[in-house]
Amino acid sequence: MKYIRSNSLKRLFSFKRRSFDSDSENSTPHAKCVEGFQETEKFQRPKWKCFSFEEIYEATNGFSSENLVGRGGFAEVYKGVLGKTGQKIAVKRITRGGREDERREKEFLMEIGTIGHVSHPNVLSLLGCCIDNGLYLVFIFSSRGSVASLLHDLNQAPLEWETRYQIAIGTAKGLHYLHKGCQRRIIHRDIKSSNVLLTQDFQPQISDFGLAKWLPSQWSHHSIAPIEGTFGHLAPEYYTHGIVDEKTDVFAFGVFLLELISGKKPVDASHQSLHSWAKTIIKEGEIERLVDPRIEEDFDIKQLHRIAFAASLCIRSSSPCRPSMIENRY
Ligand SMILES: Nc1ncnc2c1ncn2[C@@H]1O[C@H](COP(=O)(O)OP(=O)(O)O)[C@@H](O)[C@H]1O
Ligand SMILES: [Mg+2]
């Protein structure tokens, strides 16, 4: 089946070649880090490979419905195990959608072009892709699922405060890396709890780069149409003028923090947005009212004040008044 256009394919494989070219002995992936940025965490070099359709078909037991672990706007995600190594993987199958195919292909390439070239403990690692019989991305499997599934599934024990705090800090580090630590500026554009996955020991990893954008360093921002992303997370300058820069992600990160604190969804059943509900409470100085009733009194008040304060700055309507991620990650 000819699904992906040849130009796109050429680009895809030139991306991959460049990734290995830059893998020479003397170059580090962070050689081009912005001046003044000091990252102390250890990174691995990005490496991904092309899988055959047979490999991923076998790994997921023929994409069996028991292995389906997630479904987003344009994709289905299956759990699998690689026969050769026994490694647990997640295979993201891009669904076909008639006239939407071109857009899906663009998002597929964008996801490879961004997530395939980054490497940070708080960003999901791409293992590879497959372009036979459709479009597939292969990732390391995140055994705890997404932050959204843990926060909003009432059948599971509520996430402990300490874990929520760890998730807030780790996600801030991952986002800071995307904005300032990797070779080119990456604006994620869809930061939200279903796009932050958790490892076995609850380390958060930012995923789903389908809407991500590279920004050249000389551009202060980028104008985008149509507006994409998730209602309840969209910064005002983005949904009114289509303007995208790091502060778009900072706004969404603020909403994510509020979701972690309160356990509430970004937009509730009566269409009230979480950030406007929280703004009123923060203004009244009653921060403890923000806390998820499911964790009762079991939280650290200092940590609560810290992340509620960070959230209140991130959700400011005026984008220049929001902090950058360097100020948020501690
Ligand atoms: N690596 C993974 N490990 C475990 N679950 C995953 C993984 N990647 C995605 N998922 C699950 O699949 C869902 C949809 O994946 P996502 O990449 O966000 O797709 P979409 O672009 O369609 O939103 C996620 O919210 C998560 O529950
Ligand atoms: Mg998603």
Written account of the structure:
The longest helix has 21 residues, at 161-181. Mean pLDDT is 85; it is low at 15-41. 38% of the residues are buried. The chain folds into 2 domains: 7-140, Phosphorylase Kinase, domain 1, CATH 3.30.200.20; 145-328, Transferase(Phosphotransferase) domain 1 (Transferase(Phosphotransferase), domain 1), CATH 1.10.510.10. Helix 5 runs antiparallel to helix 7 (246-262) and helix 7 (246-262) packs antiparallel against helix 9 (301-314). It is an alpha+beta fold and 330 residues long. The chain has helices spanning 6-21, 53-59, 101-115, 147-152, 161-181, 236-241, 246-262, 274-283, 301-314, 325-328, and strands at 49-50, 68-71, 75-81, 88-94, 126-130, 136-140, 185-187, 196-198, 204-206, 213-215, 222-223, 243-244. The strands form 4 sheets. The protein has a 6-stranded mixed sheet, with helices on both faces. Helices cover 35% and strands 14% of the residues. The protein binds adenosine-5'-diphosphate and magnesium ion. The site of magnesium ion (MG) has 4 residues, from loops.
